[in-house]
Amino acid sequence: MPEDVSLVRNRTEAAPGARPAWVVTVLAAVLIFTSVVDVLGNALVIISVLRNRKLRNAGNVFVVSLAFADLLVVCYPYPLVLHAMLHAGWLPGEMECKVSGFLMGASVIGSIFNITAIAINRYCFICQASRYEKVYGCTGTSVLLILVWVLTAIAILPNLALGSLTYDPRVYSCTFSQTASAGYTIAVVTVHFLLPIAVVTFCYLRIWVLVLQVRRRVTSDVRPRLRPSELRHFLTMFVVFVLFAVCWAPLNLIGLAVAVDPPRVAPMVPDWLFVVSYFMAYFNSCLNAVVYGLLNQNFRREYRRILLSLCKPRLFLQETSRGGTERSNKQSPGNNNNDQPKAETI
Description:
The protein is mainly alpha-helical and about 350 residues long. The chain has one domain: Up-down Bundle (Rhopdopsin 7-helix transmembrane proteins), CATH 1.20.1070.10. The protein is built from 16 helices and two strands. The longest helix is centred in the middle third of the chain and has 35 residues. The radius of gyration is 22 Å and the shape is globular.
């Protein structure tokens, strides 16, 4: 057996063995629930955009990309995490550990970069309307989407060179080790979390300023540039951003604290706090699709139609071919901007 694999397996004998069975059961239940909702919810998001022409636009390209990022963790890492829980340790080899950690990191970084891209899109759509069509044409949107995933790959690749993707028995996962390098941990938290959060916060603050100006009618010549539907869509994506920040902030703050002095601070972090912060982060992968369904009427209606159509496959195919055209025609002219260049987004 290679030495590195042996070391990975030896580490599995540390914390999990002493963990009560009911704790492992709870963690496994949370992970299973998260995985099921993740798969069903994000599949509904992708199918909704593909089926409904009203939802097929530049802004929702990044919504679909975000759904794909959330699905990455379900296709490989989460099943291995559940396997480690059931067997009280990591049984696969080192290669599987690296692949699992890589996909986990790609999902996390891809999610925050897509959330940032969505915020920039909303900012341009609402606050820079005159430039929106120039930036978010077919070519521009494709370039920006590719850029999101190129930056994601660039951000995750250093982990392979530094060997910072290792098995952590506390969370049964192959993941980024916060004690691998203090400087790199600070860089990860800054570039992968703090900087995107700052950009998103700036974009949404500018939108909020515009919203307040429109509502208060600061001057008599202020035109209500923000339609009610646009406001709802902005609020939906704002909630997505807030939930991401809340779910990932504890883990990133722990990482910053550990990076200050790894040998001294790392042992001071309570095991329960570290585990809770990790599973809060895991849980975030299933929330976005739920938010769309709760706050956005277009997605909620499309979810319902898809679920009902699944009982009748023929009806599902017919609805897909129509692409939501009939649903758009039923709306009143004042609420329907499907024919306009800046189609309605979520």
